[in-house]
Amino acid sequence: MHAYLLEFGNLLLRWLHVIAAIAWIGESIYFVMLDNSLRPPQRSAAKQRGVFGEMWAVHGGGFYHNQKYLTNPAELPDDLHWSYWKAYSTWLSGFALFAILYLRKPDVYLTNPSSPWAWAAALEPWQAAAAAVIFLLAGWVIYDQLCRRISPTMERDGLLSAAVGVMMVFVAYLSVQMFQGRAAFLLTGAVMATCMSANVLFWIIPGQRRMVAALKANVPPDPLDGMRGKQRSVHNTYFTLPVVFLMLSNHYSFTFTSPHAWIILSLFIFAGAAIRQYFVLRHLGKNQLAYPAVGVALLLVIAWLGAPARTMAPTASLASPSGTAGMQQVQAIIEARCVQCHAAKPTQPGFVSAPLGVVLETTDQIALHGAKIKETVASNYMPLGNLTGMTNAERATITNWSIPH
Ligand code: HEC
Q1: Domain check: are 337 and 372 in the same one?
Q2: pLDDT digit string (tens) for 278-291?
Q3: Is the residue at 302 inside a domain?
Q4: Are 302 and 325 in the same domain?
Q5: Does the predicted model carry a pTM greater than 0.90?
Q6: 236 and 99: one domain?
Q7: In a designed cystine with 67, which of 6, 54, 258, 293 is the match (CB 3.0 to 4.6 A)?
């Protein structure tokens, strides 16, 4: 019952998280589009009122006329629309989801016993959980320090972007060594998402509050507040596509179980940023196809790196048993190592139903999922965290098994 309630909580949180993220990212994409689509005001009255740019739009059966003032609107109504709860609720629901899945079961989802780094392979489950939380916090602190030190007055934003790119490659590399692949991808995405939310909480909103207070007190606002808010929201824009991929990567084990996982992860980040750049420029009226071309080229490299032949190579060379195993032999291994979780009624604590509906109790079911079984076993993804202690010989048997038709 306890496990069922957690499962149901997981469902509700995931629903909330996806909706909050859609609302947040949708609004963020909308405002970047709006900002880049502004044109100088047509009427002199608007110019005199200090309008910086305007955009006309038709939507939902009506016409909208947006006007942007930089820092000097003639009047400022009290019912200003602020945007922050979408960002905060996305982070809070995301962290809660991470906690009830990964932090609650670090031995299943976080620890990486096959890490090439001995100290990482030896992490106790609680240490891996603590390391994951520290990872998120450290990611924000380092990113924030890069922004403060490299481009405090926004004059070296190009260099800063390059530094943030290098930082993300480093985060990708470190997380793939320290944590299980699935968690590593998620955590890298969560580092970026944490920076995004923290940008809103610590810089963008406080800066806007100071600007509003200055306007109300009739003193000129500090232009740095506006510029810094812009700098951080530009970063947020380029983070969106990579973060969404990293959240979805959980469903595509070939990405995070690849021996080239950290490279795939880094390339996805750059592909997402390049594709986003195309749309940013597009709203400025520029149609620079080089950006999506770079994005697509990176995706093709990923497809090549993640191809099953390359993924299976390392484990297929394990001491391979002579001849191919029969169904009986494979079923015996699956009964010993997999049905704890992959059963209609799992016996593994914390599992209420077969993960992803994959039940492996009969030979028909095993044959049905044959290709996926081979793929996930060959890449060390299954058994999850090798909780059930599968041996290398058993792994080789399944990897070399030819699935009956
Ligand atoms: C500790 C529990 C556990 C054990 C033991 C386990 N699995 Fe899984 N398995 C999972 C979970 C959880 C998922 C779903 C992961 C996800 O959400 O992507 C999964 C998913 C799968 C999938 C679907 C993957 C996909 O991307 O569609 C296959 C196939 C699979 N497991 C095969 C096996 C095999 C074969 C074994 C035994 C060698 C095994 N599992 C042992 C928990 C387990």
Answers
A1: yes
A2: 999 998 889 999 99
A3: yes
A4: no
A5: no
A6: yes
A7: 54
Kindly give the number of the ligand 1 atom that is closest to the alpha carbon of 375. Answer: 29
C-alpha–C-alpha distance, residues 107 and 143, integer Å: 29
CB 253 within 8 A of CB 383: no
Contact 228, 155 (CB under 8 A): no
Report the C-alpha gap between 31 and 370 in whole angstroms.
Answer: 47
Does some domain include residue 331?
A: yes
Same domain, 352 and 259: no
253 CA from centroid of ligand 1 (Å): 10
User: 239 with 374, same domain?
Assistant: no
Domain end point (choices 252, 274, 306): 306
| Nearest atom in ligand 1 to 253's CA | 26
Same domain, 120 and 263: yes
For atom 9 of ligand 1, the residue with the nearest CA is: 355
Contact of 178 with 112, CB cutoff 8 Å: yes
Domain assignment of residue 262, yes or no? yes
Which atom of ligand 1 has the smallest separation from the CA of 385? 1
| Residue to mutate (ligand 1; options 6, 335, 337, 338; most atoms within 8 A of CB) | 338
Tens-place pLDDT, residues 66-91: 999 887 787 888 888 998 999 999 99
Could you tell me if the CB of 376 is within 6 A of ligand 1?
Answer: yes
Q: Please identify which residue in the block is written with the tokens 């992803």.
A: 356
Residue 354 Cα to ligand 1 midpoint, Å, equals 9
Same domain, 156 and 278: yes
In-domain check, residue 22? no
Task: Calculate how far, in angstroms, residue 92's C-alpha sits from the geometric centre of ligand 1.
Answer: 28
Task: Give the Å distances, CA to CA, from 12 to 5, 15, 122, 249.
Answer: 11, 5, 34, 20
* pLDDT bracket for residue 165 (50, 70, 90): very high
Tokens 């030190």 label which residue? Answer: 149
Secondary structure (DSSP) of 314-357? HHHTS-PPSSPPPHHHHHHHHHHHTTTTSSSS--STT--S-GGG
Q: Is the domain of 103 the same as that of 46?
A: no
Q: Number of folded domains in the chain?
A: 3
Is the pLDDT assigned to residue 317 strictly greater than 50? no
